[in-house]
Amino acid sequence: MNTGANNNQFSDNYFSIPNFSAAITDGAAPFPATSSTTFIPAPGIDRNVFPGPGYRDVDVTFGKAFGLPSMRVLGENAKIDIKANLINAFNLLNINPSTINTNIANTNLGQATGALGARVVDFQARFSF
Q1: What is the distance between the alpha carbons of residues 22 and 32, in angstroms, rounded to a whole number?
Q2: What are the b/e assignments for 100-118, b being 16+ CB within 10 Å?
Q3: pLDDT (0 to 100) of residue 1
């Protein structure tokens, strides 16, 4: 580390060090009309810089209940329910947010390497009496 009068320890770094002392100067008036002060620079990266496509899915349920006639064995309110559940019915691509690469040393920075599940169809039948 160079400790001499010409100290340039931050000259070869990637990020520049802001000059905070120039932004906080004592002026003669509380709010001078013309100021030579500079503001603190804004940060280089904001929050949520990898937004990706939004999550969308449509879940649909189709069902039909058929009543059975009154019988001594089945009872008075016996019925059969048939149901189909479609999860992500239109099979939209949903990126898995935990697979987005945020390592700046990797060449796939900001790319997702996986997706959530595709369309799922679930059939059900229920007999109640």
Answers
A1: 15
A2: beeeeeeeeeeebeeeeee
A3: 47
Residue position matching structure tokens 């000059």:
19
At 27, list the tokens: 């002026």
Distance, in Å, from the CA atom of 120 to the CA atom of 98, rounded to the nearest integer, reads 21
Spatial contact of 63 and 79, defined as CB atoms under 8 Å apart: no
Instruction: State pLDDT tens for residues 2-48.
Output: 455 555 555 555 556 666 666 655 555 555 555 556 666 666 656 66
CA pair distance 57, 119, nearest whole angstrom: 9
125: tokens are 């039948």
Nearest alpha carbon to residue 97 among 68, 54, 41: 54
DSSP string, 43-54: PSS-S-----SP
Q: What is the pTM of this model?
A: 0.48
Backbone angles phi, psi at 98, to 5 degrees: -80, -10
